[in-house]
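Fig. S4 source data, part A: sequence.
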Amino acid sequence: MADPQDPLIQLALTSFSQSFRTGAEGEMLHRPNRPVCFLPTSLSCEAGEWVWATNAYATVYDTPITGELLDAAPVVVRDNLEAQIVLPPNMKMILADQLFWPEWHVNFVKQFVKFIAIYRRWVEAEYEESEDPVDYSATMKVLENWRQTCDALVVCPNFSSSWEAPAFFPVYDMYCYGACLEYFEDQKELFAFKKDSWDAYLREALAIIGEWQHMFDNLMSPKFVAFPNVYGITVIFTKR
């Protein structure tokens, strides 16, 4: 049974989250066969641990490999950085006994190795420890939490063939925020007569993204829980 004092439960009981859920239920209502759902109703608490009931979390493929990430990828190949990755316990066990595990578990581990090598190189290039040691240390901590999140996810009792590695929050947040701004700017150009409405929708969308950011930073990342796919929030506002 879920602890009513658990921070995730408390968040779900806030008035902001309740109003958001009410507004989202039409288009983004949770259905097991719709992994684009980003509502926390897809989370369940089992034996005191928060796990996803379906693969409704954001994945590494929800963000494009462009810009600095694209620059990092060839460096990973050139310097064979994947070989330097140390697997956490669960994934190490799976790879060591891969003949006894379903193929999708093994594929998840290989996907993890590929992306953590890229993300680590990106963090090193983006934050440069010598120039900004505080930001570098904080981001490396988030990366380590992501590593532990992946390790917990791969042995989730609901894990199935369509589950992929969760997105790395700093990258996902960067693209999600940018895509949100771009989307509403495009709407203002296409429907200039509704400019004030689009501005209001943008503020509300960014406020929702802010709520999920807070949820990730303070609750989900420390608990090693993959965070929801929030990119779909703009769908809600297109129906108004």
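Fig. S4 source data, part B ends here. Residues 195-223 form the longest helix (29 residues).
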